[in-house]
Amino acid sequence: MTPRADIYTVSPSLFKAWYGFSMQVGECGLEKPLLELVKIRASQINGCANCLNMHTAEARQAGETEQRIHLLAAWHEAPCYTDRERAALAWTEHMTEVATKRAPDAVYAALDAQFDKEEQLKLTLAINVINGWNRLAVGFNLYAPELGWK
Fold it and tell me: For residue 122, which phi and psi values (nearest 5 degrees)?
């Protein structure tokens, strides 16, 4: 896969702002393993190999198990996720596919039961960030194998 552009250098000031915002959201105070599950699930939906490679490795580093990483694509049927994780994953799916899935009341009610309003905003911003990275990586053919498994 040949990159279509060097996104780090074609618009340095915009990229610096984007990267800074991404890092700030990544340190928002939500649980690291939860954020990695969200990043993996959005990246699965978006078909982003770069982000899947990176975030499965980061999930392992955060203590996530192989079983839970592998079952994530079928989380609806897998009993190993908490109610909080399920609410975050459902919200992730709906926000990632917002054009067709929207934000139904039942999905929001599950989110509201597990996350306070500040956490809801933080989670939604984290979902926006990973979707942005997915679009950059897919759109510009980006893949950095050193960011994941070797």
Answer: -60, -45
Q: Do residues 127 and 25 make contact, with C-beta atoms less than 8 angstroms apart?
A: no
Residues recorded for the chain: 150
pLDDT of residue 84: 98
Compute the distance between CA of residue 81 and CA of residue 108 in angstroms, rounded to an integer.
Answer: 18
CA-nearest of 56, 39, 59, 57 to 129 is 39
- Chain Cα centroid distance, residue 115: 17
Q: What are 130-142's pLDDT values in tens digits? A: 999 999 999 999 9
In angstroms, the Cα distances linking 109 to 16, 19, 72, 104 are 36, 32, 22, 9
Place of tokens 């510009």: 140
